[in-house]
Please model this.
Amino acid sequence: MRRKRFKRKGVDIPFTPLIDIVFLLLIYFLLTSHFVEQQTLKVKLPETSLHGRALQQEILTITITKEGEFFINQRKVPTFHLKEELKKITKEKVISQVHLEADREAKVQWLIKAMEAAKEAGLKNILVKTLRKGAKL
Model:
């Protein structure tokens, strides 16, 4: 008795040779690639008991209210003394970043004034803080 073979519709893909080829390619690329070792110098740094100016880096926050009041690190500063206060702070400490927080109803001119005062005081890394849409206070 003969068995009838039913023909499948479509194409049969032999997976065994395909897997063999993929593994051979993987082995080839692993063997031919070379890994670069990081070359570093081992240096013992000197110690000090004094904390220098470079170690006292801080983030400075300038807040502007909708009424136009300026605050530096939550301390109120008169508008006309903003530049002088920033220069005084930069002489005492190394400021790594300046964060500007302005009320959304504050005038843009006040934000620009704060940015100009920070730049004139020698501060370079100035960021304007915002809220992501949909975020709650």
Notes: The longest helix spans residues 15-32. Helices lie at 15-32, 82-92, 108-120.
